[in-house]
């Protein structure tokens, strides 16, 4: 069985963070491993408070996991602090971990900051380690410095982020007007993943970025090409949203 590690935050609602990641790994018939970087007091609609776990303890978590398991892919989500970003960048480089999917969590959908400014700056130093980086439009704008209002802006931002070192850039287009289009850039060309907008409240869409990035990681663990892993992950995400709508 393939093993996939998530390094991310804890969400009490269970719809995002490490719990959502591990469920997604299991849906792709993979063993889910987890390292928690931060605790949150939140529900599906709002984040009340965030407490980052000290880098030294996060390092103990990941060291303990890797002493027994050799993950086939790693999904990185909310890191919570500058210290965690810098420590993990060094750690991943030293251990030469493979198939890294970086979901650059900077603020919650309700607007609560989840990483301080210097942490965002440090996050750019992690980008060269990523097989795929998966920002949404606001995150891509922060990382690239670009104003993103249309697909051409997405393409420009993807090229700017690619120049920072990741092997692939997937910018999720759900924040743009009209039907969503996700754009994947690998340095030589673009792939476009078009979809139909699903009308749903914030609580239904909570954690969808976590699900997508962890599904991509599960695909990479199974040696899927990046474009195929993204397509499979998007299909799984759509099923997840529709199921949530039905069950909520």
Characterization of this structure:
The structure is a single chain. This protein has 248 residues and is α/β, with parallel strands linked by helices. It has a single domain, classed as 3-Layer(aba) Sandwich (UDP-N-acetylmuramoyl-L-alanine:D-glutamate ligase), CATH 3.40.1190. Helices cover 44% and strands 19% of the residues. The protein contains nine helices and nine strands. The protein has helices at residues 17-27, 55-68, 82-95, 117-126, 137-144, 151-162, 202-205, 208-221, 226-247, and strands spanning 3-10, 31-42, 47-52, 73-76, 100-102, 132-133, 169-171, 181-185, 190-194. The strands form two sheets. It has a six-stranded mixed sheet. Strands 7-8-9 form a three-stranded antiparallel sheet, covered by helices on one side. Helix 3 (82-95) packs parallel to helix 4 (117-126) and helix 5 packs across helix 6 (151-162).
The CATH topology assignment is UDP-N-acetylmuramoyl-L-alanine:D-glutamate ligase
The helicity comes to 40-55%
Query: Would you identify the CATH architecture?
Result: 3-Layer(aba) Sandwich
> How far apart are the termini?
32 Å
User: What is the CATH superfamily classification?
Assistant: Ribokinase
Query: Outline, from the CA principal axes?
Result: globular
Q: Indicate the CATH class.
A: Alpha Beta
Roughly what is the average pLDDT, rounded to an integer? Answer: 94
Biggest β-sheet: count, sense, barrel? 6 strands, mixed
Which runs of at least 5 residues are low in confidence (pLDDT < 50)?
none
What's the alpha carbon Rg, rounded to whole Å? 16 Å
What letter string, H or E per element, gives the SSE order?
EHEEHEHEHEHHEEEHHH
Structural class: alpha/beta
Secondary structure tally: strands: 9
Q: How many domain modules?
A: 1
Strand content: 15-25%
Q: Count the helices. How many?
A: 9
Instruction: Give me the side-by-side strand order of the main sheet.
Output: 3-2-1-4-5-6
């Amino acid at each position: 069985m393939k093993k996939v590690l998530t390094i991310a935050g804890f969400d009490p609602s269970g719809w995002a963070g490490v719990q959502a990641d591990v469920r997604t790994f299991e849906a792709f018939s993979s063993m889910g491993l987890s390292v928690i970087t931060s605790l949150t007091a939140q529900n599906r609609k709002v984040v009340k408070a965030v407490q980052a776990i000290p880098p030294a303890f996060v390092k103990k978590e990941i060291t303990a996991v890797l002493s027994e398991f050799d993950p086939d892919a790693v999904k990185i989500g909310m890191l919570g602090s500058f210290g965690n970003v810098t420590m993990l960048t060094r750690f991943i480089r030293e251990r030469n971990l493979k198939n890294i999917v970086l979901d650059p969590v900077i603020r919650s959908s309700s607007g609560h900051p989840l990483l301080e400014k210097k942490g965002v700056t440090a996050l750019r130093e992690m980008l060269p380690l990523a097989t795929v980086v998966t920002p949404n439009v606001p995150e891509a704008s922060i990382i690239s410095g670009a104003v993103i209002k249309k697909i051409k802006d997405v393409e420009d931002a993807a090229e700017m982020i690619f120049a920072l070192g990741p092997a692939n850039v997937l910018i999720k287009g759900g924040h743009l007007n009209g039907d969503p289009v996700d754009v994947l850039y690998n340095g030589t060309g673009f792939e476009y993943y078009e979809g139909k907008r699903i009308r749903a409240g914030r609580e239904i869409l909570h954690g969808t970025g976590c699900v997508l990035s962890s599904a991509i990681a599960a695909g990479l663990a199974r040696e899927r090409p990046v474009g195929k892993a993204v397509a499979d992950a998007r299909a799984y995400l759509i099923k997840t949203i529709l199921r949530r709508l039905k069950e909520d």
